[in-house]
Amino acid sequence: MEPLYIIKVGGSIIDDASNLKTFLAAFARIQGKKILVHGGGKIATKLAADLSIPQQMVDGRRITDQETLKVVTMVYAGWINKQLVAQLNALASPSIGICGADASIIIAHKRKHPNIDFGFVGDVDQVQTDLLLSLLQNNLNIIIAPITQDESGQLLNTNADTIAQEIAKAMSKHAATTLVYSFEKKGVLKDVNDEHSVIPTIDQALYQQLKEQHSIFAGMIPKLDNAFAAISSGVSKVIIGDAMELSELINGKSGTTIS
Amino acid sequence: MEPLYIIKVGGSIIDDASNLKTFLAAFARIQGKKILVHGGGKIATKLAADLSIPQQMVDGRRITDQETLKVVTMVYAGWINKQLVAQLNALASPSIGICGADASIIIAHKRKHPNIDFGFVGDVDQVQTDLLLSLLQNNLNIIIAPITQDESGQLLNTNADTIAQEIAKAMSKHAATTLVYSFEKKGVLKDVNDEHSVIPTIDQALYQQLKEQHSIFAGMIPKLDNAFAAISSGVSKVIIGDAMELSELINGKSGTTIS
Asked: If 0-12 CB within 10 Å is exposed, 13-18 middle and 19+ buried, where does residue B17 land?
């Protein structure tokens, strides 16, 4: 198969119509097969507020009771997913929008945690690639909302970064796969206060060195650990950077490439 | 291809968890290829009320301003579509949920009306069958939410009965297609006040006779006109009846069969 790009786009891009338009135009222009994974947290948070559904975040994860599950399913799999699809179709970049529950492409289970009840939050067990391969071979972009289900048919709110990573790992058995985390930052910074200090490439050796020198922002360590885990599972490279420079990220002219 | 069933399920079934469970179990048991078209009007109306978005209906159609479009897209393509998918998957009846915008399976345009501005309401121009055929050949049920888009990427709220009919017409070129309208009524009644007066079969000759005798409920005439239009476009038969008796409808043991 052609090279495959799996692109996660962060919520702050989706919240801004003009940024989203710029991002989607660049996405449509990428040559090769493409999967886009999105969230939409701020729109969900606003809808929950409008409906007076209290929201609680623990470790950056949304505690998902029944009413919150309904909100995130409506916002992610409904409003945002179909907006992205319709805009890409209008750009002559044919797209289909699904979530992890569709055709059981992702099998998940309700998170078990010793101390915290996250509610209807899912952790990924397995990615089934058959439908994804078939849709890509039909020359469709696949737009994925971060909702999954368990075997009983319970929908589950699931982290979009994790979904992008798990799909990239599974698809790397079938295609040269690049995983892109695009958001509002320029990449991995040497100096967290200096947006111009982006480290262009990081390999395992440099990563160890940066960690030993404590010259890497602590909040970036889990992201980089995940990136190296993806690479050791067969993903060709992982790119982290600014969603407003998607073409440059893909070409290695912007952001941080991990390989 | 195997026989194809295109089933529209009415909103009052979706509103009731127990009725929905009964319906989906029967749907999962149908032999052959299956497409399910759903609405979800009452849930959308309730969400609009919870968000204090005023709703206005004209001739049974929802005037769809920007905020209402968001509500119906969230409810139909998000919450309801993914609930149906997850429940069918859990019944080992693999299903994918999409809307008319996905892969541009339906091309629509914003309704033009001389006197009434319906807002973001779509009328269907064309159904593209490629993706539908490919998904059915992958042994997936297709669950379709009644949201479409126009060529500019504008999402449009679109009548689910019409979508079911247009898909049935287009698919009848590829498979022996049965179109089922399942809802809370027993079928076409000879006496509108007597649920036991279901007319089991209606052909063109009987329909003319019933109309001349004025022995058919006026509200049923557009539905029957549509059914005969579908048949003259190649659909094998149209069945109208009780969603709680789906197996019997398919077998001709319940409801009204139009052919």
From this structure: exposed
Question: Mean pLDDT of all residues in chain B?
Answer: 94
Specify the pLDDT at position B216. 81
Task: List b or e across A84-96, with b for residues whose CB sees 16 or more CB atoms inside 10 angstroms.
Answer: bbbbbbbbebbbb
Question: Least CB-CB distance to B85: which of A75, A94, A101?
Answer: A101
Assign residue B90 the CATH number of its domain.
3.40.1160.10
Size of interface A-B (CB pairs under 8 A): 124
Three-state secondary-structure class, residue B188:
coil
Give the DSSP H or E segment for B227. Answer: helix B221-232
Torsion on CA atoms B205, B209, B214, B219, rounded to nearest 10: -10
pLDDT in tens, A101-146: 999 999 999 999 999 999 999 999 999 999 999 999 999 999 999 9
Number of domains in chain A: 1
- Residue from B171, B159, B161 nearest B235 by CA: B171
| Single-letter amino acid, residue A195 | E
- Counting every residue written for chain A, the total comes to 259
pTM: 0.96
Residue-wise pLDDT tens digits, A167-210 = 999 999 999 999 999 999 899 988 888 889 999 999 999 999 98
Check if the beta carbon of residue B74 is closer than 8 Å to that of residue A81: no
A11–chain B nearest CA distance, Å = 17
Give the single-character DSSP code of B254: S
* Separation in Å, CA of A32 to nearest CA in chain B: 17
With an 8 Å Cβ cutoff, are B102 and A96 in contact? yes
- Inter-chain contact A82–B101, Cβ cutoff 8 Å? yes
ipTM above 0.90, yes or no: yes
What is the DSSP code (8-state) at residue A76? Answer: I
Tokens 């541009």 identify what position?
A: B104
Domain enclosing residue B33, as ranges:
4-258
Residues B160, B125: contact at Cβ < 8 Å? Answer: no
pLDDT of residue B119: 96
